[in-house]
Amino acid sequence: xxxxxxxxxxxxxxxxxxxxxxxxxxxxxxxxxxxxxxxxxxxxxxxxxxxxxxxxxxxxxxxxxxxxxxxxxxxxxxxxxxxxxxxxxxxxxxxxxxxxxxxxxxxxxxxxxxxxxxxxxxxxxxxxxxxxxxxxxxxxxxxxxxxxxxxxxxxxxxxxxxxxxxxxxxxxxxxxxxxxxxxxxxx
Length: 187
What we know:
Layout: H1 5-28, H2 31-51, H3 54-82, H4 86-109, H5 115-136, H6 139-158, H7 163-185
Helix pairs in contact: 1-7, 2-3, 2-7, 3-4, 4-5, 5-6, 6-7
């Protein structure tokens, strides 16, 4: 089948329109809000890990994690009303619930007890979740997950005393920035 140059241009323009519409849908849905919320959770939680004692930091993490889950649920409910792909949002929500369960099993079965190692495992598993989301929804998200994973592992290996600060600013900060970018630039 031979196509003319004009037909090829028309097909490429159709692809570009689909890409723009997909980005608009993502920007109007919960994706950027989830990233901002969980970036803030990371930022506050890891700063707490660095500056507070372990017990206080643990309570901080508990409080902000519960707040993050409540906010995520509310956003999921709100966007399912506005965006037609509610079944898609339900699957994403179920994925993250399964992620919590499996990450808990990994920590428990692996016998990970050191707080710094628990932070690394949870963070790397969270980035695994972003890689999977990237494979489903937006390929650059997979790259972001891989990049943040690399930074986490490098900090753990070469600067463990600063790991929590690295995860707060580069992990949490990256999630906040990308969420903001998607929300502002893709509308």
